[in-house]
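U., I forgot to send this yesterday:
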Amino acid sequence: MFTKLHHVAIICSDYERSKSFYVNTLGLHQIEETYREERNSYKLDLGVGEHTRIELFSFPNAPERPSYPEAQGLRHLAFEVENLDEAVSVLVSKGINSLEKIRLDELTNKRFTFFADPDGLPIELYEK
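Result:
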């Protein structure tokens, strides 16, 4: 039935700040940006690899949602990386200071860490 994950949608509190974070800091590529005047809202399609997208939305007066890795609902967004140490170094060089200590997944023996986007959304880096 399902063939792949198509996209993850994120509503941000500050569109320009989040756009800069996902494009300039994380290096995702812009596919398409749309401004919908009737909604006073942006939608930015960002490419993650060849097959997955993140849809970044701005909505005026969107309510806050408590978010941390152990909250109910969507737990986190995870990106696979070839080399976790290199990925961490790149993020630190770009000013990401919220990186947690690197841990080992007891089930897969793979290394991972977490950091947060500008709105506190937990993002995981998971070593391939």
